[in-house]
What we know:
Distance between the termini: 103 Å
Order of helices and strands: HHHHHHHEHHEEEEEHEEEHEE
Number of domains: 3
CATH topology of the largest domain: Umud Fragment, subunit A
Number of helices: 11
CATH architecture of the largest domain: Ribbon
Strand content: 15-25%
Structural class: alpha+beta
Mean pLDDT: 84
Strand order of the largest sheet: 2-1-3-4-9-5-6-7-8
Amino acid sequence: MRNIFSSNIKILRKRRKRTQDDVAIALKMKRSTLSGYENEVAQPAIDALVALSKYYGVSIDTLVKVDLSKLSESELSQLERGYDVFINGSKLRVLATTVDSTNNENIEVVNHKASAGYRTGFADPEYIKVLPTFHMPFLSKEKKYRTFQISGDSMHPIPDGSWVTGEFVQNWNMIRDNMPYIILTIDDGIMFKVVHNDIKTRGMLKLISLNPLYEPYDIDAKSIREVWKFVHYIANAMPEQNTRNDELAMSVASLKRDMDKLKRQMIPSQGKLLFEE
Length: 277
């Protein structure tokens, strides 16, 4: 059986483009000792584990328990940027994903028809494999994206049927208040909402619609399965004009014109304001 630790420290070293000499010098150990760790010849003592953990910014638990060779590029990138599930205390969330022939992450598409199946099949690699895919060259290769077709008018003026692309969020503590996210829950499936993060204080997310006709409401974090940060949307129609605001603006403008006209009709006379006849 392959040694996960040996494989992991070799992967991390190569991703940093470091030689064994580079790492050994930085950690003040012999190159032959490091080579022994990487080639499963020797087992590290606790001080060596701590040193390697600090050097790579990855927890000891991750080094010995998580097979980094099975993680996607976007997951490895998140790990290297400090989103280590064993360090921040969040649960490990394994994302089923697909790659193209050159090992680049696909952007899978979940349309209206597929959304019902996605609620139960989101973690099934076989289900994800049959979803349509595409690429957007201007998006980062170090992050994972997925596109969802939304329905309804709760996020008006974003039109019903728009395609919303999100970036996968591994650490839910990083969810920012008053920003839009795509949320997958057990009961309600895929939802697109503005979010207020109360996970640390109440174990809840408050979901807010752009359409004021819909009241905000809370959902339990335990019912959430995936969170995707909004990146952009594509629609085949222009957003509808906000007639309510336009009518209000027109009314205010009309009132202002009437007041200006009234002021012009008034003249000062002996310390009083009189209307002209």
